[in-house]
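One such given next:
>
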Amino acid sequence: MKLLPAIATVGGYTMLSRILGFVRDILIAAYLGAGMVADAFFVAFKLPNFFRRLFAEGAFNAGFVPVFSEILERDGRDAARGFAQSALAVLVVVLVLLVGLFQALMPWLMYGLAPGFAAWPEKFELTVALTRITFPYLLFISVVSLMGGVLNSLGRFAAVAATPVLLNLCLIGALLWLAPFTPTPGHALAWGVAVAGMIQFVWLIVALHRADMPLRFSSPRLTPQVKYLLRLMAPAAVGAGVVQINLVVDIVLASLLPSGSVSYLFYADRLNQLPLGVVGVAVGTALLPLISREISGGRRDSALHHQNRATEFALLLTLPAAAAFVVLAHPFVSVLFERGEFGPRESDLTALALRAYAIGLPAYVLVKVLTPAYFARQDTVTPVRIGAICVVANLVLNLALMWWLKHVGLALATALSAWLNTWLLARTLSRRGDFVTDARLRQRLPRTLLAMAIMVVGLAVAHDGLDDWLSSTFLLRILCVVLLVLGGLGLFALSAYVTGAARPDDLRSFRPASNG
């Protein structure tokens, strides 16, 4: 298994998903804007997604993948399949009970998730109704996460990486073809989410059969391996999901701010998620099974090598992306979303949130790079301790900044707490000797920062020069944004080459390090 091809596969499909996601969000902005229905749907979509990322992706990636990889490396495919089937049986029972409980408690649950909505009864009732439709998505997508962990551990990343594409296609189809027949476009989107979960489930069942690793449902049994998995998952649910917890805290507090605040944060986060998904998720997804098998096989030097190269690669891509979002936030938001129910005021407020989120973008990605070093060693306790500190810090920063900066303060608090999370994770790994920066990483980082600074100056000058065009017709605004993006990419690439931040032959360094 090679790191760069795996990152490229996951990143390529994630890029396709993000492009379709932008099409989806453009349609949502046009149909829903940033009003009552938009706020209600975003909360309804956030709740199952929160549990998916926290427990399914976060906890299962942290607990399941290292254990499955170890069994696969030590005992072979049949033993690994048996463990996966036992875990699947227990997971399905827990999920059915959880979904049923949440459906029954949904009105009371909403008082905790969006307490500010209670002041508007119509908005509150709509949010409850939409969340009841979307919540079964958690059942299917959690099983999808387990099946995806199996496929990723086998080095088969494509089918798993394609599942978000199916979600976006379902939501686009729901808006275009189902919305005319539902009470609101929010209802159509909620049904689109539920259907997407079922389609993703069937998609990975087929992928597992093609990988000659079909999983069969059996009676749930708490085998010793499953008990060990549950012990790993419990702290990992918080440790891997600290960013998600912080984002949910943002939603809770945003519901107390003026109407539309939830929507501004959602649209800004969607833009911020592009590099986070393409780089952060791709690197983390590819890195965890790789270093898990290397550590299980006693190849510590190779694991450290990959950790350094993943850090270098992540910073090379996310530092310029974060800088570009800060400089070009308003043109990005305006071109993508400003139409229909989404006007200039909404663009201004969303752009401010995007700039705040972008400050933390490199940190969000580095968390994805650093946490696999803990999970691969089956240590899920340390990240949860660090995560708890960061959740408290985020809450304190939220309360300190929201009354002064409104929704922008919530985004800024999330960014600052992400940097705290990164620093604590890196410091702890370094003290243990499980993350030692090599000479190449220490040389390349300052050069990357210099190349980024050159790009920022160029973008700022170009933005000022195109200011009149950016206030003109829609087609001219699109042309300007395309020119700015291509120009920024070209300038950074040239600067990175001249300063020595990156070289064409660097691709070879992402191959497994020699243990000789």
In short: Residues 356 and 395 are 16 Å apart (CA to CA). Residues 438-501 form one domain. Confidence is low (pLDDT under 50) at residues 509-516.
